[in-house]
């Protein structure tokens, strides 16, 4: 581990912004996704580059948990009755030897987070092998026992995602923004979304990401997609 990089991460000023996620059946916000920002220009504000730099220097866990803690601390979770907070997390963070102690501390410091936080598993090629580990599946089960929920992102982007739905039984699946783009014009996309809706019914909730046009939102409603997220519905902002 790079001590210099660890010190930079620990001293780095960060900001959390939150993008609303809408319940299309009742037309109200049901949750927010927390997103990390660097107001002082760390890595020129490139979030992916910052996490890769942290990974290269052995500090990915420290940056990931710092972002998680900050996202919770800046969110009025104690004043919200139903809204959920979605927070991105790397599989390697969940596997880290200190992670269970970390979530213990979260619950101690933020007693209102039980059943309110959804860990959105971040997918990256560099961590593909982690998903096959029995230890990782055990850790996911433990997270659920602690009262946290699980979401799998970018469904439909690759065939492996479908296997992950079956093996990890997430409470939420998020459809890749590919499906939202020109959804109103593509019968193939509509049919695929309908199939996923049929599968997910009674098992998990489906969220359509990347909704940016009125016609695509209208089509999502026509297909009975329960939840959606995108710039049309709200941009990431500080709270």
Would you write up a description of this structure?
It is a single chain. The chain is of the alpha/beta class. Helices cover 39% and strands 20% of the residues. It is built from 9 helices and 8 strands. It has an 8-stranded mixed beta barrel with strand order 1-2-3-4-5-6-7-8, surrounded by 4 helices. Strand 5, helix 7 and strand 6 form a beta-alpha-beta unit. Helix 2 packs across helix 3.
The chain-level structural class is: alpha/beta
Query: Which residue ranges are poorly predicted, with pLDDT under 50 across at least 5 consecutive positions?
Result: none
Q: Rg from C-alpha positions?
A: 18 Å
Mean pLDDT: 92
Helix and strand pattern: HEEHHEHHEHEHEHEHE
Largest pleated sheet: 8 strands, mixed, barrel
Number of strands: 8
Please specify the SSE layout and strand pairing.
Blueprint: H1 3-11, E1 15-23, E2 28-37, H2 47-56, H3 60-73, E3 84-89, H4 91-95, H5 99-109, E4 117-121, H6 134-145, E5 149-155, H7 159-168, E6 172-175, H8 187-200, E7 205-208, H9 214-222, E8 227-229
Helix pairs in contact: 2-3
Provide a quick synopsis of the model:
Helices cover 39% and strands 20% of the residues.
Key words describing this protein structure:
single chain; 239 residues; alpha/beta; eight-stranded mixed β-barrel; 39% helix; 20% strand; globular
């Amino acid at each position: 581990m790079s001590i210099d990089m660890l010190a930079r991460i620990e001293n780095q000023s960060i900001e959390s912004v939150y993008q609303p996620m809408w319940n299309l059946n009742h037309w109200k916000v049901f949750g927010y996704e927390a997103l990390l920002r660097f107001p002082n220009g760390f890595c020129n504000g490139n979030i992916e580059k910052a996490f890769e730099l942290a990974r290269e220097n052995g500090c990915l866990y420290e940056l990931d948990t710092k972002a998680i803690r900050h996202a919770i601390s800046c969110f009025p979770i104690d004043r919200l009755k139903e809204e959920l907070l979605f927070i991105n997390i790397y599989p390697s963070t969940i596997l880290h030897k200190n992670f269970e102690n970390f979530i213990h501390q979260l619950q101690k410091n933020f007693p209102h987070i039980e059943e309110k936080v959804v860990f959105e598993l971040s997918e990256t090629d560099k961590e593909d092998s982690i998903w096959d580990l029995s230890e990782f599946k055990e850790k996911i089960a433990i997270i659920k026992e602690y009262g946290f929920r699980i979401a799998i992102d970018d469904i439909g982007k690759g065939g492996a995602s479908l296997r992950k739905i079956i093996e990890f039984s997430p409470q939420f699946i998020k459809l890749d923004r590919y499906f939202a783009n020109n959804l109103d014009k593509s019968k193939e996309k509509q049919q695929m979304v309908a199939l996923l809706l049929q599968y997910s019914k009674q098992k998990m909730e489906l969220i359509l990401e990347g909704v940016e046009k009125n016609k695509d939102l209208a089509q999502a409603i026509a297909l009975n997609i329960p939840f959606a997220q995108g710039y049309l519905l709200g941009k990431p902002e500080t709270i």
